[in-house]
Amino acid sequence: MTVFLENARIINPETLEESSGNLILHEGLIAAIGAASAPKGAQIIDCAGKCVAPGIVDLGVKIGEPGERHRESFRSAGLAAAAGGVTTIIARPDTSPAIDTPEVLEFVTRRAAEAPVRIHHMAALTKSRKGHEMVEIGFMLDAGALAFTDCDHVVTDTKVLGRALSYARSLGALVIGHPQDPGLSKGAAVTSGKFASLLGLPGVHPMAERIGLDRDLGMVEMTGVRYHADQITCARSLPPLERAKANGLDVTAGVSIHHLTLNDLDVGDYRSFFKLTPPLRPEEDRMAVVEAVASGLIDIICSMHSPQDEESKRLPFEDAAPGAVALQTFLPAAMRLYHAGAMDLPMLFRAMSLNPAKRLGLPQGRMAEGAPADLVLFDPDAPFMLDRSKLLSKSKNTPFDGQRMEGRVIATFVAGRQVFGQEGMNNA
Length: 428
What we know:
Blueprint (H helix, E strand, L loop, with lengths): L2 E10 L4 E10 L2 E5 L9 E4 L4 E4 L1 E6 L12 H10 L2 E6 L10 H10 L6 E4 L15 H6 L15 H14 L2 E4 L4 H4 L4 E2 L2 H6 L3 E2 L2 H17 L2 E4 L8 H9 L4 E6 H5 L21 H13 L4 E3 L7 H4 L16 H10 L5 H16 L14 E11 L18 E11 L2 E5 L7
Parallel strand pairs: 1-4, 1-5, 6-7, 7-8, 9-12, 10-11, 12-13, 13-14
Antiparallel strand pairs: 1-2, 2-3, 5-15, 15-16, 16-17
InterPro entries: Amidohydro_3, DHOase, DHOase/Allantoinase_Hydrolase, DHOase_cat, Metal-dep_hydrolase_composite, Metal_Hydrolase
Enzyme class: hydrolase
EC number: 3.5.2.3
């Protein structure tokens, strides 16, 4: 089917420009931008001046299959993603069992086919994410793995890590690290400081992230591997990241939408939905990281979607499982940065769509003729109160429950096919 989107506010993250016009979607691709009239027989959708942008490419989503399907399935994650403007999910390998063999990777790839959005997978870097023996990186690449990571299980044996990175380098594989010193971080629930002491909660100093990043960057310099830091959340981590890029290392970095929009004061009432890994940071760190995204030093914004069941979260803060769902709240949370004047829409979608797709070698994330027609139509100004019971994820552990938000997804398209759309859309 051919789709004609008229009267759109077009967001282009490549040129960092906005324009008004029409788009034609045909055979899964963006066939034309700025067309004067609809082709014969096309489905016409009046965007009414609302924004059309490349669909979000979300790098680092936890899905419960295999092993924890009660927390999130491929289908529920796909429905939540479509409702949140996420058209491509890059799933993490921290499943049970971990995605560390071609057989497990092939299984989850088949299961992911039931989702309404695109789902690609990362693989574990070491077997069972235990940090003792690297996986068969070549075989995993052949089976479709886009990157390799042990997630928050940091490999402490630098000799094992060095061998894995050298082998990944020889195959051109991307390795994703979690920059934290595991010794300093063990048992921490919040960022250390006066506020943590007042709450009586165990904290971790932000330097734990800096130490972990320095170690990883040294290993990258030694091996020449392609490397991405999954979350940079502290001002102290920005100078070494900047130096690594200036020295020509193949390094990128990301940050979660929660660390861009929340700070450590939000845990003040001990609500475990605000317990994250790494923990929320002071406002000075949050602002420094926001500026780093705006400047391009931090390349990617992700959801770090981590579904947890009620039994895991309804515990004392120190004992509760970390993580929050974010697929469906990703875009409205990002609109907080837009409305605060921290970033314009093309900058945001550069970090949410274009940059993750480029880093992973995917064709998505672009607003250009011939690019995949993976798009989101949204109203950045539409207000609503978030009710977590209405989220489409199986788990409802969102820190934004009951908060006023702005930014509502009107429709989501994957390969030119509408996979989400609100009732009352103006279809001619």
